[in-house]
Amino acid sequence: MAVSASALGRLTRTPSGFAALAVVAGGIAGLAIFSRAGLFGLTDGLVVARAFGSYGIPVDDLHEMARPGVLPSAGELSFIDATPTATQYLWQALTTLPGAVLTAGALFLLGRLLWQARGGAYVPRVARQARGLGWWLLIGGILAAAVEEIAMIRLLDTVALQVDTAFRLREAPVVVLLAGLGMLLVGSVLRDGVRMREDLEGTV
Asked: What is the tens place of the pLDDT at every residue in 165-196?
């Protein structure tokens, strides 16, 4: 056990090793967070298209689950196709894959940023990498949400009729976008700090 821990410590002290661990951790986190149906929905032998919005469909057969005077209803409407085509599998995978890529990339960039900042934060490369992480979260968050919604719309078109499939970017990741804006702000502060440090060193 001590040997494994020592080997892991040596691995994390090298940039390539640290980056590799960040990519692995990002992939695992992406699968755990964004894949809701096995390996991006490719392992169950069926596809599930989730309709947008809440429908409030009464469920009369489940009235015994509710208290007297309460009518249970199903808010989410899903369409399950047990004989999917390869195209349907592709659309289903794209409903979760972009978010997993976004997560893995963010963890990789964060790990690289922390590695570069180990000797001090007020250096040009740290400021650039902080801004790079911010743009990745901001632009990537919007693109990932857009691609996932378009994929779900295309999947719905293959299994449902008379369902709202207009593109509205319904599930924009607000937290991710705020984190991206925060990292852009941090990068700007670090860049200003680098300039002030260079000016001070030039006047000494």
From this structure: 888 888 888 899 999 999 999 888 888 877 77
According to DSSP, the residues that pair with 74 across neighbouring strands are 57
Q: What confidence tens digit (pLDDT) does each residue in 83-129 have?
A: 889 999 999 989 988 988 898 898 888 888 888 777 777 778 888 88
Phi-psi bin for 173: left (phi > 0), alpha (psi -120 to 50), beta? Answer: beta
d(CA 200, CA 184): 24
Q: Which residues contact 153 (CB under 8 A, 6 or more apart)?
A: 165, 167
Looking at beta carbons, which pairs linking 124-128 to residues 24 or more positions away fall under 8 Å? 124/191, 124/194, 126/190, 127/187, 127/188, 127/190, 127/191, 127/193, 127/194, 128/187
Burial 38-51 (b: 16+ CB within 10 A, else e): eebbbeeeebbbeb
pTM of the model: 0.71
* Separation between Cα atoms, residue 184 and residue 9, nearest integer Å: 31
Q: What is the pLDDT of residue 100?
A: 85
Distance CA 150, CA 93 (A): 12
Evaluate whether 190 touches 122 at the Cβ level (below 8 Å). Answer: yes
